[in-house]
Specification:
Length: about 300
């Protein structure tokens, strides 16, 4: 029914942290995936942004940020290029845990095709491929960053996103929320024919449900239309599926919160991303909001 998006075991820190207080955020990810745009967005949201701070100075910066009269919310942009980086970062994160300073890691990535196209458009060299093809630099960096990706609190895939869309996504994720809410949920409907989201924590395939596409009067309508919703929700298979899905999520979510997970991205896919997945995502949004958890909705392929 559902499959968790695979993540490699973390080599940075096995501890998940729930961000509290003013907020200390580490921005990292693949070159060309949008780190600079993310930094500008957080700066607009009132964060004090520092670019390329050596990892060894992270604990000192976090201490300064948490003191009265300090800069408050801080975002550090980390650019991984050296082999000593991971050792320094691991020690720095362990020190943050020892000092009980909460933090979160925002990791930005994109598909190989998107990254290659961005480098072609800017005519910049990839930092890990000064003499090789860009795709080789991307491959090296993706392997190098695997462990840090696995420890990220929030992964954002910027493939196909405009700078404006990326900013909207980050504003939603970093908007102030009451501490008791604990978990921000992002729900994405998508069509498998257009590819599944890379940044989902949980991927749910609903192609087994009766498809409104084969009903002539429903085919041109979106899943947000009441007639499509009535058809999908009127199926016995749908009602049983949703009962079990709500039960599963009701069991999983407290565990995520207890482990300190701050963001949960759930992707629901059907064939074209216009009917069944849209209806279910809207229902899940109501499910989470009824539990007092902020939930954002993105119908990715609704207009295809």
């Amino acid at each position: 029914m559902a499959e968790a998006a695979k993540k490699e075991p973390s080599k940075v820190s096995p501890i998940r942290r729930r961000p509290q207080g003013p907020g200390f955020t580490i921005i990292t990810g693949l070159s060309g995936a949008g780190r600079s745009e993310a930094a500008k967005c957080l700066e607009d949201l009132g964060y004090f942004v520092v670019d390329n701070l050596p990892p060894a100075l992270l604990p000192k910066m976090a201490e300064l940020a948490s003191k009265p009269g300090g800069p408050g919310r801080v975002a550090i942009v980390l650019d991984v290029r050296g082999g000593v980086f991971f050792g320094e970062l691991s020690r720095a994160l362990e020190e943050l845990d020892t000092l009980s300073i909460p933090y979160r890691i925002l990791y930005l990535e994109a598909s190989d095709d998107d990254l290659v196209n961005r480098y072609a458009a800017t005519r910049h060299r990839h930092p890990l491929a000064p003499a090789d093809r860009v795709i080789e630099g991307i491959r090296k960096e993706r392997l190098m960053m695997e462990s840090l990706r696995g420890d990220a609190d929030l992964i954002v895939d910027t493939s196909g996103l405009s700078p404006h869309e990326l900013r909207d996504r980050l504003r939603e994720a970093f908007s102030d929320a009451p501490p008791e809410q604990g978990l921000q949920v992002s729900l994405i409907s998508f069509g498998y024919k257009y590819g599944s989201p890379r940044d989902a924590d949980l991927v749910i395939d609903v192609r087994f449900l009766p498809n409104p596409h084969w009903i002539d009067e429903l085919r041109p309508l979106p899943g947000t239309d009441d007639r499509v919703r009535t058809y999908v929700k009127g199926q016995q298979t749908y009602r049983e599926f949703m009962r079990r899905l709500r039960s599963l999520l009701g069991f999983m979510v407290p565990g995520f919160v207890a482990e300190g997970k701050s963001y949960l991205t759930i992707a629901v896919g059907c064939t074209g991303g216009r009917h069944r997945s849209v209806v279910i995502v809207d229902e899940l949004a109501n499910f989470f909001r009824d539990k007092g958890m902020p939930a954002t909705v993105d119908h990715r392929d609704l207009d295809h």
